[in-house]
Amino acid sequence: MIVISRFRVPPERTEGFVGQARAAIEVLSSADGFRSADLGRNTDEPDLWTITTRWRNVGSYRRGLGSYEAKLTVAPLLSEAVDEPSAYIDPDDLTL
């Protein structure tokens, strides 16, 4: 599964955001089922950023967010994300 979280970051907050995002990725990367993460800035809208993470399954993602360290580091960052759906599963995993 993939999780795409987008953020609007004013230029004056860019450095702080990048540091916070890297810290969050570091915490998540220690979770069982974590596969990979990417941090990126949009090429057309420089204030638009994304953190994209890949997980073995939905349960892995949810458990990754449930750790004490994630609640201290990741949750505050995600509270600033654009309010939109962020979790996507592989079509092969869909129950139709």
UniProtKB/TrEMBL annotation:
Pfam families to which the protein is assigned, alphabetical: ABM
Keyword annotations of the record: Monooxygenase, Oxidoreductase
Keyword Hydrolase found: no
Family annotation (InterPro entries): ABM_dom, Dimeric_a/b-barrel
GO molecular function annotation: monooxygenase activity
Domain ABM intervals: 1-89
Domain of life: Bacteria
Protein's name according to its UniProt entry: Antibiotic biosynthesis monooxygenase
Organism this protein belongs to: Microlunatus soli
